[in-house]
Each structure stands twice: as C-alpha cells, then as structure tokens.
Amino acid sequence: MDIAAERIERLHELARAAAANRNDDRARYYVRLARRVAERNRLTLPREFRRFTCDRCDAYLRPGVNARVRLQNGHVVITCDCGDHARYPYED
Amino acid sequence: MALTPETLPRHELNGLPVRVVESDDASRVGLEGRVVIETTNTLSIEVRDNGESQVLMVPKSGSTFEFAITDEAAGDEKSSGTASKLADTQPDPSEESDESDGAGGDAAGCARASGHAGEGVAYVTVDGSRLLSRPARRTETNGDSPWQ
Ligand SMILES: [Zn+2]
C-alpha cells in the first residue's frame, strides 16, 4: 500500500471521528481531501468510503443522523440531508 | 509504505500530535496539540487544556514542528478505533517505527528522528518550510509517483 492509499485510510478515520463529534464541516474537509488525493494518484476510493460519503455535498454520512436509509426493490437508497440519493443493490 | 520519519513529509499530517519547537513568533513556541486542518501555508493545531479546546493556525514557514508517530498510527489502519485513539494522544507501548524504509533521500535528510523516542513513540522534527505544499500534492513531490 503506498502513501496515497494510506492517507486515504487515515482521512477516512478522521472524517468518521469528526462526524461522530458533530463536526460536519471538518468531516467534509477530510472527505474532500481524501477525494483529491485519490484523483491525483488515480486510486479507487475504498467501497466503504464511497458508501458513507455524499457525492453531492461531501458529507460523511451517519445513518439515522444525517442520512436516511431505505430499502426499495432490491436496492438500498441512502438520502443525505442535502437531498441527494445514492442507490446500490443488495443481495438477500 | 507506512508512516515513518522518512515518509512523514509526504504523509497525512491531519490527526498527528504535534508540538511547535521553534518559531519566528515566540508566542507560538511550545504549542502542543493535534493537527486538524492543513492548508498550503498553515497548519491548524487543536490545543486542549483542561477540557477547553482551541484551534490555532500556525504558518508552516518560520516554524519547526515535532510530530509524534505512535505505533498504532504508524502501523495498520484497519482497526476502526485509530482516530479516537489518536484523539487522546496515548502512546502505545509496543515498538519503534521502522526506519530502514528507503524513502526519498532528501526527506530523510531533513526529517530526522530525534533521540528522545520513548515507549513506542517516534518524534520527528521537521522544518515547516519542507511542508509548504498543497495538502493533496505533498505526497507526489518526492518520487514514487507514476507521474514523475
Ligand atoms: Zn449530501
């Protein structure tokens, strides 16, 4: 694992901790920085990171706090407080 | 490539415990806390004294910083508690970080690990001017990028 991938891991943890402390702007800053590191180094962000961040406003999502999670026709639909939906399929 | 004294100038600084050891501005010397926000020219340090936390912005140029690399910070990040463990700045009493990593030679020159490493913590002293870079670009400025 190279430095860029490790930075992303570390920023993921920082974003999660900041979101847990209700420090939303700081969580956004960490999410944006992780995205920037990934794009500059042509890395795919880890799946967990993609599932727990909002594509539109870069918030770190905490289901039940700033995100709503519903199941619909074999898909998980996660709605951020900003109104953006992300959907992905699930297996039973 | 883990976070070692050699790789620190290219690694993530946010979240690391830090102390200002030298500064042009004498009032900043001795500030101790964790890096919470990095910009091209500054580090914002969250200083905690008895329950009160305060975020202070320190320019990178003109200051020398001492970062503490604890073992769990240097080691594998998979444990979900990493960030919260970093939060209370508790050194993990296991082992030294591996310094035989052949990272960029010029990083090794400036980021020397000073002698007083104790109980699983390595202290790395870095001149702030070495960190002057956009936070996302620091990783690439020193080799091992496909874009060189
Ligand atoms: Zn959103």
TrEMBL record, chain A:
Its main location: cytoplasm. The keyword Lyase does not apply. Gene3D superfamilies: 6.20.50.20, Immunoglobulin FC, subunit C. The keyword Amino-acid biosynthesis does not apply. Binds 1 zinc ion per subunit. It is found in: Cytoplasm. One of its GO terms (biological process) is tRNA 5'-leader removal. InterPro entries: RNP4 (IPR016432), Rpr2/Snm1/Rpp21 (IPR007175). Its EC number is 3.1.26.5. Keywords: Cytoplasm, Endonuclease, Hydrolase, Metal-binding, Nuclease, tRNA processing, Zinc. One of its GO terms (cellular component) is ribonuclease P complex. Its cofactor is Zn(2+). One of its GO terms (molecular function) is zinc ion binding. PANTHER family: RIBONUCLEASE P PROTEIN SUBUNIT P21, RIBONUCLEASE P SUBUNIT P21. Part of ribonuclease P, a protein complex that generates mature tRNA molecules by cleaving their 5'-ends. Consists of a catalytic RNA component and at least 4-5 protein subunits. Belongs to the eukaryotic/archaeal RNase P protein component 4 family. This is Ribonuclease P protein component 4. The gene is rnp4.
UniProtKB/TrEMBL annotation, chain B:
SUPFAM superfamilies: Rof/RNase P subunit-like. Its EC number is 3.1.26.5. It is found in: Cytoplasm. Its main location: cytoplasm. GO terms for biological process: tRNA 5'-leader removal. The keyword Nuclease applies. Keywords: Cytoplasm, Endonuclease, Hydrolase, Nuclease, tRNA processing. InterPro entries: RNase_P/MRP_Rpp29_sf (IPR036980), RNP1 (IPR023538), Rof/RNase_P-like (IPR023534), Rpp29/RNP1 (IPR002730). GO terms for cellular component: cytoplasm; ribonuclease P complex. It holds the Pfam family RNase_P-MRP_p29. Residues 70-148 are annotated as: Disordered. It catalyses: Endonucleolytic cleavage of RNA, removing 5'-extranucleotides from tRNA precursor. GO terms for molecular function: ribonuclease P activity; RNA binding. Consists of a catalytic RNA component and at least 4-5 protein subunits. Belongs to the eukaryotic/archaeal RNase P protein component 1 family. Part of ribonuclease P, a protein complex that generates mature tRNA molecules by cleaving their 5'-ends. This is Ribonuclease P protein component 1. It comes from Natronorubrum texcoconense.
